[in-house]
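FYI - complex with heme C, inputs then prediction.
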Amino acid sequence: MAGALAADPVAPLDFNLYMQGKFVYERNCIVCHGQRGDGNGEMSPTLKPKPRSFREGMFKFRTTPYGMLPTDDDLRRTITHGLSGTAMGAFSHLQSDEVEAVIAYVKSFSRRWRKPENYAPTMEFPAAPEWYKTAEAVKTHALEGKKLFATNCAACHGEKADGKGAAAVTLKDIWGLPAAPADLRQPHPRCGDGPEDLFRVLATGLSGTPMVSFEKVLSEEQRWDVIAYVLSIRLPSGPVL
Ligand code: HEC
Ligand code: HEC
């Protein structure tokens, strides 16, 4: 639902939904996200990136502005599609009522969900411009995008977009963990593969990380140019590690 609030912050917790959510969580999520929802499940020590702690109520992949709570649809997308290239798999076998219940349970870990000021309507996302349909035009725009990338992204993501920029080693997220800039050459970023998925990241930023919104820094046209550049250097089958 475009423009809808993430949820009603003052709605009383539905006890049956919560209990069903706990059941789903204990069978599917606890090994990584932990009993207390702090991201310290049994499997956590071996994983990079670490499973999210739900206690701070901060989520990277959203349709809401930076720092705001995600919508239920945002959480549903993460849970049913997973986050490519991480241990967060796609829970496509869960029924829709199970997903709804586990979302309610995830929310119970943080007080941020109880405060109306943490909620915001979804942002507006335009469709990719027409020129994305023509390979020649994409090439021309990618040349512009390359320059914008060098000045706005390379410090963190690296000149080659391999995630190894000069600032990369110093970056931390709010969970106190090193925040590794994404290797933008990979064919399947966590946000999704298409230009619109990348556009969403540039609009919303990834909450809790140094990847902030570029909405005020780059015009819409410039953002589409940068994205054309990123798509133009994408590797066919993932980076060589
Ligand atoms: C095998 C480990 C593993 C399991 C099992 C797992 N997750 Fe995750 N999950 C992760 C990792 C790792 C991340 C962090 C990925 C990142 O930061 O890029 C994550 C992130 C998340 C996020 C945060 C996404 C964001 O936008 O920040 C949500 C929500 C989530 N998981 C929900 C769930 C739910 C619900 C289940 C059970 C149905 C589940 N996870 C099961 C490993 C797991
Ligand atoms: C201050 C450092 C910094 C700058 C500048 C920066 N990024 Fe990022 N970016 C990051 C970090 C760190 C992450 C990964 C965050 C995480 O998951 O913890 C990231 C993640 C991303 C992702 C998400 C990839 C995925 O897996 O879904 C995209 C897309 C992205 N950046 C594009 C860009 C573009 C394009 C620019 C320039 C306009 C840019 N970034 C500028 C630090 C930065």
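The mean pLDDT is 94. The CA atoms of residues 43 and 201 lie 28 Å apart.
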